[in-house]
Design brief:
The structure is a single chain. The chain is an alpha+beta fold. Helix content is about 25%, strand content about 20%. It has nine helices and 15 strands. The radius of gyration is 34 Å and the shape is elongated.
Length: about 375
């Protein structure tokens, strides 16, 4: 009688079993990982439609979350809803109805639908161009006070962290986007929003009224964020001047207001826009004076740079580049070379010593003295 033997697994079978085991372990890990909710939390000013589904009509209606973050429902004590997602708000209202004896636990069934996501005010400081209180998710006042509800499923894409940073003027070149701080009701949390520039996925945190956002400073300016983006300034305005001689009125100056440039533009774009580049070879020694005000002290710093050095992008003696990034309200003035300046002096002298002007002065000057 032959002995029965258990079949031994082949190499292919071992590999298949190992793959299945790894797949099962990976699936178990995904199930175990907490998943962050993407629902928008309620904030003061939001308008909601409440339906109590036990047949009692006294609680069904449209309500607005008050300045304390509570929902005032007739016959009920105010229910704190700010910071809760809609499904969490439904559960909180159901508990209040049961605890205060209006509904039996078996019949507690509440439906809540957001009809209007309100604008909220938050506070932003740190490395942004216009720190202070900003409004996000701004809407038309007629829509805010209208009785016509939004469509079910409408969202509020403007009530997020990146919107607050953008509305505060955008990030400065020395901003550290890997550790943006959010302070809410005394609790602090850090958030990495560098994916705006790198393209890596990140969670854009929804904000509530009264939140504070702090954009920290980086040890060194980051050239990668000196360009247009979702959280960059929309542009900068620069005052340009390129005159061989002063004008006698603003109307003749050629430019009545600042020139707009996209954020990330540099000094070479400004001098090119002001027609400081090119022309006769005798004017190749032109130079540019670049002025920038310190936003804290108001003091204006001036830097003189040869036009050729700006075009080449060389480094100045102080270690700074000769082709710096343009900032809002910078002043750029181009000056002619020494040869052109001497030529203009010669023209002025010849005009004064012109025989016609000399005769005009001798005949008519005494008349004006009378």
């Amino acid at each position: 009688m032959e002995e029965l033997r258990r079949p031994q697994p082949t190499a292919t079978g071992v590999r298949r079993i190992g793959w299945l085991a790894r797949a099962a372990a990976g699936l178990a890990l995904l199930v175990a990982l907490p998943v962050e909710s993407s629902a928008l939390p309620l904030s003061r000013g939001d308008r909601v439609r409440l339906d109590v589904l036990d047949g009692d009509e006294q609680f069904t209606g449209t309500y607005q979350i008050d300045l304390n973050g509570s929902l005032p429902i007739p016959h009920l004590r105010p229910i704190q809803l700010e910071g809760l997602e809609p499904h969490e708000a439904e559960a909180a209202i159901e508990r209040a109805l049961v605890d205060q004896g209006f509904v039996q636990p078996a019949y507690a069934d509440v439906g809540l639908e957001v009809q209007l996501w309100a604008p909220v005010d938050v506070f932003v400081k740190g490395q942004v161009f216009d720190p202070g209180r900003v409004t996000i998710n701004a809407i038309d006042p007629e829509q805010q006070f209208s009785d016509v509800p939004q469509r079910s499923g409408d969202s509020a894409p403007g009530r997020f962290l990146t919107t607050a940073i953008r509305n505060a003027g955008g990030v400065r070149p020395d901003a550290d986007l890997t550790a943006v701080e959010l302070i809410r009701s005394g609790r602090r949390s850090l958030h990495d929003v560098s994916g705006v520039f790198s393209g890596e996925p990140f969670r854009d945190v929804p904000l509530l009224a009264g939140d504070q956002v702090i954009v920290p400073v980086s040890a060194n300016p980051n050239p990668d964020i000196m360009r247009t983006s979702q959280i960059s300034p929309p542009g900068v305005k620069v005052y340009l001047s390129n005159l061989t001689e002063p004008t006698q009125s603003n109307a003749l100056s050629g430019s009545k207001e600042a020139t707009g440039f996209s954020y990330g533009s540099r000094l070479v774009q400004a001098i090119t826009s002001a027609a400081c580049v090119g022309g006769s070879n005798v004017n190749k020694d032109r130079f540019v004076v670049h002025g920038r005000a310190n936003r804290a002290t108001g003091e204006v710093y001036w830097m003189r740079r040869p036009i050729e050095d700006v075009l080449k992008g060389t480094t100045a003696a102080n270690g700074e580049t000769n082709n710096p990034l343009l900032m809002n309200n910078d002043v750029v003035a181009c000056y002619d070379s020494r040869f052109i300046s001497l030529r203009e002096v010669g023209r002025a002298v010849s005009l004064i010593l012109s025989p016609v002007n000399l005769m005009r002065g001798s005949f008519f000057w005494p008349r004006f003295q009378q």
